[in-house]
Amino acid sequence: MTTLHLLTHPEATHVVDGLVGGWYDADLTERGTQQAHAVAAEVAARLSPALAAGERVAVVSSDLVRCRRTAELVAAALGEGVPVRLDRRLREQSYGAAEGRPVGSCAWRPPASGDDALHHHDGVPGSETRWQVADRVQASVREHLAAAPEHLVLVTHGGAATYVVTTFVGMAVEAVGPVRFVTPPGSISTLRLDPATGDRRVESVGDLGHLGHLERSSR
């Protein structure tokens, strides 16, 4: 049995500063760091029985700071001997020349009704299409799943996470189109591959239950 624990990075500075993200290398906010500690504690609690039973864990992350810091906290919570492997293919969609600029300051062209959402280009120099994101994320996920031990912890971004899920369930890139899975910042999604039956189980998507205490304390 292989379990994929899909994590999306918590609150990052570009969001609260109103800047376009993408490959802009924003850090976690103070609140985001608290959320990352909560994510790490939750993952460690979930995997504690598995680790005690000798099951192996791999941690793979987007190389951007907001994901890397989250992954490092998770690896530390899991104990010594769990390294973090960085993979730039797990980055968020690139928004090219708009990255790091105030939201709304760069003109972009939204898809019109009936357009191919997957191959639509927004007109911003250097930005990626969804197809380009899906293609690289799919290659990354397939590679890491093929080499995965019993547990694969994968840390990425909200937009890229959709293509992790579609790859896991075996959806061809060409079929993804406008499909989006909602995975909020700091969320955990659980996907499980049963080798006995071949079932690819999507057990939860975008779970935020482990952040409840932080939400209550901020009110």
The secondary structure category is alpha/beta
Low-confidence stretches: none
Q: How far is the first residue's CA from the last residue's CA?
A: 40 Å
Q: What is the gyration radius calculated from CA atoms?
A: 17 Å
Residue-averaged pLDDT = 93
Number of helical elements: 7
Sheet with most strands: strand arrangement:
3-2-4-1-5-6
SS strand fraction: 15-25%
Largest sheet: 6 strands, mixed
Large-scale geometry: globular
Give the oligomer, counting copies of the same chain as homo and different chains as hetero: single chain
Describe the structure in your own words.
The protein has 219 residues and is of the alpha/beta class. It has helices at 13-16, 30-52, 65-78, 130-146, 158-168, 173-176, 212-217; strands spanning 2-8, 57-61, 84-86, 151-156, 188-193, 200-207. It has a 6-stranded mixed beta sheet, with helices on both faces. Helix 3 (65-78) links the parallel strand 2 and strand 3. The mean pLDDT is 93.
